Amino acid sequence: MNILKNHPKKDGSTLGFIIGKPDAELENIDKLSIVNVFNDYCSVLPAIEDDGYFIIAGRKGTGKSAIARYLKGSACQDNDTFVFIIKTDDVKLERLIQAVPEAEHSAIFEWLILTRLVKLILDTNYTSYPKPIKDLRKFYERNTRLINPGDYNIDEIINNQEISFEVLRNGFGKIVGKKYKSAKLNKGIFYQFVPVLREVMQTVLGYDVFEKSKFYICFDDIDVKFKIQRDKGVLADLIRTACKYNSEYFNPRQVKILLFVRDDLTKRLSGVDSDISKILDSSQISLNWYQHDDYLIDEKNINLRKLINRRLEENFNNFKRKYNTTDPWRTFVEHIEDYGDKSAFSYILDFTYHTPRDLINIFAQVGQKDYKYPLDKRIVDMCINQYTERKLREIADELAIHFEPDYIKLITGRLFKNIASEVKQRGNIPYLKLMELFDEAGIQRDDFETLVEYDYIIPMDDNKNIYCNYREQPAVYEMESYGFILHKSIYTYYNKLRV
């Protein structure tokens, strides 16, 4: 069913427009699929393919999952490319980690990589399979509870499930026989089979039929249920494991393990081990959408403008509307003096963290309304007010790696509300007064730096210049000498724009 056809095609109306969804997996909606609208504006794909990068890092909403979804969607159109996305919550990774000895955490990641690679091999459906692939299929089918732990009870798997590899003896007898005489491993130690399965897969990938094949295993949503102090070592193990598979165990031209991870997590791995710092320096590419210099030259050439224009173009074409083909944005939003010394686009970006998700969220609801375009400032401000509701929920989610839910409610509810009230009266808040607000809200003063790091609370100097990490990433010293404000999205949540 074509969702776009459910609405009447009213000329000049936004009714039926689909600008996008905040989560990449929800964007595969008919003609607005991620494959149709995706562009590699941050040049990530060449960095993965040609330069050896395998850690794609960025703030929430910068498009990490979109890249993974694009790879998977594109693979459906390519007979030789295969992609598996491992969402950590789907495989109940948290419970697996808790149930297995710490020394074997890396083996769990290897197990997930290897068994997903088995699944992709079986999905190739090549007509000229070597005979041992049939044995690999039997192995997969007989051990599905261990291969797909998210579908079953973890405790039952760990305590009662044996792994059966007798079926592999026919096709891979030399590999299996080197290590095991028995047909089964003892209960609860399935991960001990990893070295054998790794060697089996190295053999399989050497078959001529897979010579031109490319396999991607993507770990996404790594931050789900993640606690930074508790799980730093786990993330470090995953990074080391992925590095070994990309550089030692497999040919990266044939198999690539990709990690899509928040940059606030990788920043906190310094000091875990010296090797992790080296891996991050050589293998991490960061998604950054802020382009100050390009914006000064011509704002329509910055990547966020290109992103929204691509989506607008898709909608205008689907509805067979006339529009400015050079810059569809100018057809979508009115350009008037109401925005003062800013353009409409610059005005809107001030309420965001310069991420695709923020921009998409601002206009996510226009397709459900009969708004006439170009949108005037009143409608734009209505969209911004609605967006701030979603943004505050996202901020709470972002803080979950550091704090417990009740404490986060104190931050987003009591502290931010009190700061917004003071800023409305004063313009900005002196450091000592800000610390008093921390105390009144029941927030530890030590958490001030975290809230500044995330740009929820922003330093302002005597000349009214503000310092945001997601922009120029300036060095700010002697915090006591600054005034402080809230990010515009948080301030507007408590002090809505007049419409």
Q: Can you give a write-up of this model?
A:
By secondary structure, the chain is of the alpha/beta class. It is 48% helix and 8% strand. The chain has helices at 34-37, 44-50, 64-75, 93-99, 105-123, 132-142, 144-147, 154-160, 168-179, 194-205, 228-249, 263-267, 274-283, 292-297, 303-318, 329-332, 344-349, 356-362, 377-398, 405-426, 431-441, 448-453, 488-494, and strands at residues 55-58, 81-87, 214-220, 255-262, 284-286, 429-430, 457-460, 483-486. The protein has a 5-stranded parallel sheet with strand order 2-3-4-1-5, sandwiched between helices. Strands 6-8-7 form a 3-stranded antiparallel sheet. The model is unreliable at 1-8 (pLDDT under 50).
Give a short synopsis of this structure.
The protein is α/β, with parallel strands linked by helices and 499 residues long. It contains 23 helices and 8 strands.
Mean pLDDT: 87
* Biggest beta sheet summary: 5 strands, parallel
Give me the count of strands. 8
Give the assembly state of these chains. single chain
- Alpha plus pi helix count: 23
Alpha carbon gap, first and last residue: 36 Å
Strands of the widest sheet, in order across it, are 2-3-4-1-5
Low-confidence stretches: 1-8
Strand content: 5-15%
Which value, in Å, is the CA radius of gyration? 26 Å
Structural class: alpha/beta
